[in-house]
């Protein structure tokens, strides 16, 4: 017992002694494309600052969240009477081509081609574009510099011209429309601290719906067009520990958008008028022993001001919320969705990892014109358990190739395969 006390006292004295020292020199190793001056501006530990182990660990987690960095660690070395803090970096490959394959709403083959650079000019700027064919042609361009003005303030810009065939669900039946949206958006990006981020922005949108077919639904518009201003606010609280494909912690994302009608044709103001859209995603990750990861997402969404419009903002779709349900099979003015899955790494070596997963996706929708109580009535509940696989490249940002198969067990449930890039959530 006396020996344990001596060892404990020695460790405490040593720790206290080192805590009084300073970080005399700061170094980075493993950098290839990422600019060292960018990382020096980002980290909180500076040369000639007091040694603070908590601040160092926070820096490491901050670095690991950057798209350009796959992993980070640190070491401390005493050399020539100086304490050298070295951040050891493993970089990601960040020029990412993308391919998404799906079935369009008319049954045709649909695809989306994209290329994004997540570490443009070595300081984690985003630059990207996409082209999509989903019955009609779509394209878009994106630029984002989260740290343009400081380590806390940046900007983002985008332009998108998207045209798709969209089903709209009326009481008398379902009809297809050619939907087009042209939008130009600008955002300010804030990083308040290590755990809290926000964006505010606005976009100008030209939106139109044109009826496709020969037999219109009674009281359904044949053509709508509207010019809108959209004000957007986004807030994220993130407190996660990332170790390649393993994530542990919580992430909460809140998005509010206010759509204000400027001008339009037909019955646009009636169907596409002012409304508020809000959505909150709470995501919980838990590392399970050495190779497991449990992940759950609870999504709550509602729109206020367009409760009676069949052109509702929330869609029930394979790629967005419930795997296996199909492409845009329903629309709603409010939604509750729970996704939960267990991911297990069966094989891992070097840069490659192979995961299997088992999941349950469940959700309920409020139809246009109905009360919020419909969310809890059970009539619109969908439940889809399923399983899938993940092929992961650990040195390429977001290079998770996923394939899932969902099985509908609720009323009128269907089965389906869902392919995508990146974890589902």
Summed up:
With 425 residues, this protein is mainly β.
- Segments where pLDDT lies below 50 for 5+ residues? 10-19
Principal-axis shape: globular
Broad structural category: mainly beta
The CA-CA distance between the termini, in Å, is 50 Å
Radius of gyration: 25 Å
How would you characterize the largest beta sheet?
16 strands, antiparallel
Helix amount: 10-25%
Helical stretch tally: 4
Order of helices and strands: HEEHEHEEEEEEEEEEEHEEEEEEEEE
Q: Order of strands in the sheet with the most strands? A: 6-7-8-9-10-11-12-13-14-15-16-19-20-21-22-23
| Percent of residues in beta strands | over 45%
Tell me the number of strands.
Answer: 23
Mean pLDDT, all residues: 91
Describe this structure in words.
The chain has 425 residues and is mostly beta strands. 10% of the residues lie in helices and 61% in strands. The chain is built from 4 helices and 23 strands. Strands 6-7-8-9-10-11-12-13-14-15-16-19-20-21-22-23 form a 16-stranded antiparallel beta sheet. Strand 10 and strand 11 form a beta hairpin. It is globular and about 85 Å long. It starts with a helix and ends with a strand. The model is unreliable at 10-19 (pLDDT under 50).
Features:
single chain, 425 residues, mainly beta, 4 helices, globular
Topology:
Layout: H1 2-19, E1 22-23, E2 25-29, H2 36-42, E3 49-50, H3 53-65, E4 69-79, E5 82-91, E6 95-103, E7 109-120, E8 125-134, E9 136-145, E10 153-170, E11 173-191, E12 196-212, E13 223-243, E14 246-265, H4 268-272, E15 275-288, E16 292-304, E17 314-316, E18 330-332, E19 334-349, E20 352-366, E21 381-393, E22 400-407, E23 415-421
Parallel strand pairs: 2-5
Antiparallel strand pairs: 1-3, 4-5, 6-7, 7-8, 8-9, 9-10, 10-11, 11-12, 12-13, 13-14, 14-15, 15-16, 16-19, 17-18, 19-20, 20-21, 21-22, 22-23
